[in-house]
Design goal:
By secondary structure, the protein is mainly alpha-helical. It has a domain at about 35-70. About 70% of the residues lie in helices and about 0% in strands. It has helices spanning about 15-30, 40-70. The radius of gyration is 22 Å and the shape is elongated.
């Protein structure tokens, strides 16, 4: 059996969702699932937005550099 034929990632996406959903429900019934507070959710959202902004700036800088390289005539 090849590695590609094994594990969660090799499954049909719908089957993955069904299995993951069962695990989440079981964790909540057992009382061990994490429940986000309003403050935690806000902090996580802020962190995600900040990181997204950093990636966007980096991508724009890379695109500007590529454009500048194309516009410079080769001697």
């Amino acid at each position: 059996m090849a590695n590609a034929d094994r594990g969660f990632a090799s499954m049909d996406p719908e089957k993955q969702r069904r299995i993951a959903s069962k695990g989440g429900r079981a964790a909540h019934r057992k009382g061990v699932a994490h429940v986000w507070t309003k403050e935690e959710a806000s902090k996580a959202g802020h962190k995600g937005g900040t990181e997204r902004g950093k990636r966007r700036k980096a991508q724009k800088a890379a695109e500007a550099l590529k454009t500048a390289e194309k516009e410079v005539p080769i001697p």
